[in-house]
Write a structure and sequence with these properties.
The structure is a single chain. The protein contains eleven helices and ten strands. By secondary structure, the chain is of the alpha/beta class.
């Protein structure tokens, strides 16, 4: 029953057909294993892992007492996620908490329940078939942060009214990039303002991109929703301050690090 309570806590997946094989696994192990998959490094992911562990405790589960934790971190290398997800499947975990990197987990298993968080609409992102009937072995929460670029652009225009050119900092390797670029282009066209897409691949590219963009007259920057960026809050905030670029972010953690403004949901609450 505790296993079922645990699965129910993580998004109601207890009702999914995928839970049928878990009863057999319960006979093999006294403690269910929770898989935690992240594109971040172990250190960068601790502020997200902590509320997951707190939620487990609220449901009566404590790691190493009545459940175990299998952690997998890609250290910013998205190409490592498929293999890391497969390793969790091979460990026969009871559930995979995949956060914003759930596509790799979805590709790795059609039976183990997967819990995602997403800044995008999960239907066009291919995470679920519909909001009312997600189907399959996948459930989760979306905070639509990636769809709020237009709103952040409007707020930024209020605090920097002379803005002539907006920039959008994007991780080109991320599946989250394309829909946010499209939304930003639409928003910029609506307010009749220029938009530059700042595609980056590495830490060094971030500084080069911001430094180059800062030379544009009356420039203001938006940071696209992406785990790659929210694990580098201090670095990005420091660069925008160094190059004096008014910037709007999608998480309050950026503002807590000294950033100008943010608009979006709390990722730790989610």
């Amino acid at each position: 029953m505790k296993r079922r309570a645990f699965i129910a806590l993580l998004g109601g997946v207890a009702a999914m057909p995928a839970l049928s094989p878990l009863g057999a696994r319960a006979q093999q192990s006294a403690m269910p294993a929770i898989g935690f998959l992240s594109s971040r490094s172990k250190q960068q992911a601790q502020h997200l892992l902590a509320p997951v562990l707190a939620g487990l405790q609220q449901a009566g589960f404590t790691v190493e007492e009545n459940c175990t934790l299998e952690e997998r971190y890609a250290d910013g290398h998205y190409d490592r996620l498929p293999e890391l997800a497969k390793s969790l499947v091979q460990q026969r975990v009871a559930v995979i908490v995949a956060g914003g990197t759930s596509n790799a987990a979805i590709a790795a298993t059609k039976t183990i329940p997967i819990v995602f968080t997403s800044g995008l609409d999960p239907v066009p992102a291919g995470l679920v078939s519909s909001l009312s009937r997600p189907g399959g072995n996948v459930t989760g929460v979306t905070f639509y942060s990636g769809a709020l670029g237009g709103k952040r652009m409007a707020f930024l225009r209020q605090v920097a009214p002379d803005t002539a050119t907006f920039g959008l900092l994007v991780n080109r390797a991320s599946p989250l990039a394309a829909p946010q670029v499209e939304d930003a282009n639409t928003a910029a066209a609506t307010i009749k303002c220029n938009l530059q897409i700042l595609n980056i691949d590495s830490n060094q590219d971030i500084e080069n991109a911001i430094a180059t963009f800062a030379k544009s007259p009356n420039a203001a920057l938006l940071v696209a929703t992406d785990p790659y960026f929210d694990s580098r809050t201090k670095e990005i905030v420091g660069l925008t301050a160094t190059y004096a670029v008014p910037t709007a972010y999608y998480l309050r953690e950026f503002v807590q690090a000294g950033g100008l403004i943010s608009y979006g949901a709390s990722i730790t609450d989610i």
